[in-house]
């Protein structure tokens, strides 16, 4: 079976800008939706939806609902990947955005446990499943939209543009929670203020939808359709012929999720439940996320000079160091030390996340690329992200921050080993994306 290379013919710069804007806006909306849930889970969902009287148990329950989406994501990856490889990238991306955004907006109207009893957490988890299902097809499609339109020798820089949606979405989400906390008292925030970020996602959804409706299908998909009919069952073809790439891609992406959810959701919940001022911690995270954006931008340039795999390997080394910096930094309780720890971890996150947009698509031929990229990324989300806040919180309750740091280092080493043993990709045409 011949592999369809990623396109190497540049288009007009205006077309490139529109495509990159579409990929950036979509992932910004996606991550805004995901982050407001993670922030709300750390701050309000425990007492509102899982009241037990014990803040630590409530926080664990809230993190459990956070994990629901990670288990929904591979299902969404299979469903949206199927249509992305058979129908096209553009229409599939629009559908995933609508499902993700609709689920997020509906959370704003949920009753609490005090109003509806056990129906409330059940509905919350159902909508969280909808978020995860939609996100399962979102990131992979956005990455392909950028990389399959990239000119020669710029796939690293194009591939990192959708990744910038992560800090953009985080700044929008945490900035809004910070603003709400500064302008209303705690009772008002707990009663109704927390609903506003979910409600406002409707504005971002409309913007993302408008941008994506103006773009064309990617050249790689169009060329693949001209060569012959698409695969009848993309997941079957992927698992028969490209399962090694899918497994390696999954393990290689684990570190980015582990770093992020330790430095954001876990760190926020850990600090606030131990008396750290909520507003101050949100402000520190908001500043630290800028280092993540810097890391992503630098990783794109470095990827084009060397290779995405090379950058990912060094990012994993940095992530191991970030794990062992957790105790003296976050454990000190001193704002400056906490900020330095978060900034370093999120800067490293840029180097284990930014290159994924170019690295993962290079592992698969165009026929199964949407399915392969989405499945690998979202399975990594279960291993590195879905269970991380729960595991970290449990470890912290039993042994403090040291076991959490070891956990993060172990997840990072897992990705590093996968990256070291994988062979260079062969599905990227004359200009390699993945290599030594």
Layout of helices and strands:
Elements (H helix, E strand, L loop, with lengths): L12 H31 L1 H5 L5 H32 L2 H19 L5 H4 L2 H29 L7 H6 L4 H19 L2 H6 L4 H17 L6 H9 L6 H8 L1 H10 L1 H20 L4 H28 L2 H17 L1 H5 L4 H19 L2 H4 L9 H18 L1 H12 L1 H21 L15
Helix pairs in contact: 1-3, 1-4, 1-6, 1-8, 1-10, 1-14, 3-4, 3-6, 3-20, 3-21, 4-6, 4-10, 6-20, 8-15, 13-20, 13-22, 14-15, 14-18, 14-20, 14-21, 14-22, 15-16, 15-18, 16-18, 16-22, 21-22
Labels describing this entry:
436 residues, mainly alpha, disordered N terminus, disordered C terminus
Question: Would you kindly provide a brief summary of this structure?
Answer:
This protein is an all-alpha fold.
3D architecture notes:
By secondary structure, the chain is mostly helical. The protein has 22 helices and no strands. It has helices at residues 13-43, 45-49, 55-86, 89-107, 113-116, 119-147, 155-160, 165-183, 186-191, 196-212, 219-227, 234-241, 243-252, 254-273, 278-305, 308-324, 326-330, 335-353, 356-359, 369-386, 388-399, 401-421. The longest helix has 32 residues, at 55-86. It is globular.
Share in helix: over 70%
Mean pLDDT: 84
The fraction of residues assigned to DSSP E strands is under 5%
Q: Sum up the overall morphology in one term.
A: globular
The radius of gyration computed from the alpha-carbon positions, rounded to a whole number of angstroms, is 20 Å
Largest sheet: none
Termini separation (Å)? 25 Å
Assembly form of the protein = single chain
Q: Tell how many strands the DSSP assignment holds.
A: 0
Q: Can you count the helices?
A: 22
Q: List the secondary-structure elements in sequence, H or E.
A: HHHHHHHHHHHHHHHHHHHHHH
| Helix vs. strand class | mainly alpha
Low-confidence runs (pLDDT<50, min 5 residues)?
Answer: 1-12, 426-436
């Amino acid at each position: 079976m011949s592999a369809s290379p990623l396109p190497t013919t540049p288009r007009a710069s205006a077309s490139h800008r529109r495509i990159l804007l579409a990929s950036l806006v979509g992932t910004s909306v996606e991550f805004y939706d995901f982050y407001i849930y993670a922030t709300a889970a750390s701050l309000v969902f425990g007492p509102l939806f899982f009241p037990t009287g014990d803040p630590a148990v409530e926080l664990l329950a809230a993190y459990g609902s956070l994990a629901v989406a990670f288990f929904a994501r591979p299902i969404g990856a299979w469903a949206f990947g199927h249509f992305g490889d058979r129908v096209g990238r553009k229409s599939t991306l629009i559908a995933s955005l609508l499902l993700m955004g609709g689920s997020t907006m509906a959370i704003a109207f949920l009753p609490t446990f005090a109003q509806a009893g056990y129906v409330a957490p059940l509905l919350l988890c159902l909508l969280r499943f909808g978020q995860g299902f939609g996100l399962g097809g979102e990131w992979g499609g956005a990455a392909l939209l950028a990389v399959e339109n990239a000119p020669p020798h710029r796939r690293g820089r194009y591939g990192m543009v959708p990744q910038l949606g992560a800090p953009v979405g985080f700044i929008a989400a945490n900035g809004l929670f910070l603003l709400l906390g500064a302008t209303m008292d705690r009772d008002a925030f707990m009663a109704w203020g927390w609903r506003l970020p979910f409600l406002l996602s409707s504005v971002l959804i409309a913007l993302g939808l408008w941008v994506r409706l103006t773009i064309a299908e990617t050249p790689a998909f169009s060329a693949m359709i001209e060569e012959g009919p698409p695969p009848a069952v993309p997941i079957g073809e992927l698992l028969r012929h490209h399962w090694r790439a899918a497994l390696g891609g999954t393990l290689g992406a684990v570190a980015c999720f582990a770093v992020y959810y330790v430095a954001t959701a876990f760190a926020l919940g850990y600090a606030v439940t131990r008396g750290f001022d909520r507003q101050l911690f949100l402000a520190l995270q908001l500043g630290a996320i800028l280092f993540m954006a810097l890391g992503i931008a630098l990783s794109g340039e470095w990827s084009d000079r060397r290779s995405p795999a090379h950058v990912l390997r060094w990012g994993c080394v940095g992530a191991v160091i970030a794990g062992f910096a957790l105790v003296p930094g976050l454990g000190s309780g001193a704002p400056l030390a906490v900020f330095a720890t978060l900034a370093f971890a999120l800067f490293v996150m840029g180097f284990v996340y930014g290159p994924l947009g170019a690295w993962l698509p290079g592992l698969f031929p165009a026929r199964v690329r949407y399915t392969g990229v989405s499945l690998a990324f979202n399975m990594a989300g279960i291993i590195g992200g879905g269970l991380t806040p729960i595991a970290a919180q449990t470890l912290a309750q039993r042994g403090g921050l040291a076991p959490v740091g070891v956990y993060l280092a172990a997840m990072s080493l897992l990705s590093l080993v996968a990256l070291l043993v994988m062979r260079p990709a062969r599905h990227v045409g004359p200009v390699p994306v993945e290599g030594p």
